Amino acid sequence: MLVLITYDVNTEDAAGRKRLRRVAKQCVNHGQRVQNSVFECLVDQAQYKLLQAKLLGIIDPEKDSLRFYQLGNKYQGKIEHFGAKETYEPEGVLMV
After folding, report:
1. What is the spatial distance between Cα 66 and Cα 39, in angstroms, rounded to a whole number?
2. Which of 69, 34, 33 shows the shortest CA–CA distance to 48?
3. How far apart are CA 58 and CA 74, in angstroms?
4. Neighbour-count burial of 40, counting CB atoms closer than 10 A to its CB (0-12 exposed, 13-18 middle, 19+ buried)
5. What is the 3-state secondary structure (H, E, C) of the chain?
6. pLDDT per residue over 33-65, tens digit each?
7. Which residue, 39, 52, 60, 95, is most buried by CB atoms nearer than 10 A?
8. How many CB atoms are closer than 10 A to CB 53?
9. Do residues 92 and 23 make contact, with C-beta atoms less than 8 angstroms apart?
């Protein structure tokens, strides 16, 4: 299923900047950055729960926020892209 993850981490201090890097690293390990604090992650239910638990373990709920949008397996018709950044196909070939 495709999950959209967004986050807002308070970076006013060094601890916040460290949390931001840790959240971003976890998201990069599981998906594609589509905007600065927005990732599209193609995961199964078990991977989703594990990623969610990791991210919740990183953030400070008093200062930071996370949002998870489950777009499901039939996500293709739910996404529209406009603007400068090229879109990508989550299930397509990833060339590095």
Report:
1. 11
2. 69
3. 30
4. buried
5. CEEEEEEECCCCCHHHHHHHHHHHHHHHHHEEEEECCEEEEECCHHHHHHHHHHHHHHCCCCCCEEEEEEEECCCHHHCCCCCCCCCCCCCCCCCC
6. 999 999 999 999 999 999 999 999 999 999 999
7. 39
8. 10
9. no
Whole-angstrom CA distances from 91 to 15, 76, 94 are 35, 10, 9
CA distance 28 to 9: 16
pLDDT of amino acid 79: 72
Residue with tokens 């991977």: 47
Distance (Å, whole) CA 65 – CA 71: 19
Q: pLDDT tens for residues 61-86?
A: 999 999 999 987 777 667 776 787 66
